[in-house]
Amino acid sequence: MRYNFTKPTTSFVFGDSRVIQAIPGGYPRFKEMKAFFHLQDPRAPQPEGKPFWKVEPLLEVLRVNSEELLDLGPDVSLDEQDCGFQGRSALKDKIKFKAEGDGFLADCICQDGYTWTFHFRHDPTPLPLTQKDASDLHNRCLMLVKRLKFEWTRMWMDNLFVSRRFFQWGYTEKVLETAEQAVGTRCRR
């Protein structure tokens, strides 16, 4: 990941070299701090329908860079991930079924433990909607599917995302989808 900054010794705009020498980790740590330092006016009103508006610039940088750093293979998975959070927030979900505990849920496309792209569940699905008659969950997931670069990628998912219409919409996006569907106490493929 590049931070697009020059050495402070050659450009006074980016700080004093004495500051870098005082920071543990030196120049690389200073570059990280400069790249992700963000000021926000506390008096500014929250934009309507944007719950993560303060961290959205950072999330977008993470999303774009994570997609550029890995070329996906033929098999990916669609799953939900929990970002654990201990503090107070109206957006925090109560999660009993994951070891991470309470936090923020995101729908993600992953491969071999690498999160390739993601979309938090509290963020509204960008307009125009992928399918007007689909649920928010399916529209979020179809938005992630549209970000795939290769046709006929095999996508594995659990029973949270399974529906006949979702498979049809995935087929129109040229994605092969497969999932486990719980039937009684047994699962079948």
Write the layout of secondary structure elements.
Blueprint: H1 17-22, H2 26-36, H3 56-68, E1 75-84, E2 103-111, E3 114-120, H4 136-146, E4 153-157, H5 164-172, E5 175-179, E6 181-183, E7 186-188
Parallel strand pairs: 1-4, 4-5
Antiparallel strand pairs: 1-2, 2-3, 6-7
Helix-strand category: alpha/beta
Compute the number of strand runs: 7
Q: Major β-sheet, in short? A: 5 strands, mixed
Measured as a percent range, the helix fraction is 25-40%
- 3D shape: globular
Order of helices and strands: HHHEEEHEHEEE
Q: If strands are numbered along the chain, what order do they take across the biggest sheet?
A: 3-2-1-4-5
First-last Cα distance: 40 Å
Give the oligomeric state of the chains in this entry, treating copies of one chain as homo and distinct chains as hetero: single chain
Q: What is the strand content?
A: 15-25%
User: In terms of per-residue confidence, which ranges show pLDDT below 50 for 5 or more consecutive residues?
Assistant: none
> Quick check: average pLDDT?
78
**Count of DSSP H/I helices:** 5
What is the CA-based Rg, rounded? 20 Å
InterPro entries: PGBD (IPR029526)
Protein name: PiggyBac transposable element-derived protein domain-containing protein
Domain PiggyBac transposable element-derived protein: 28-168
Organism: Cymbomonas tetramitiformis
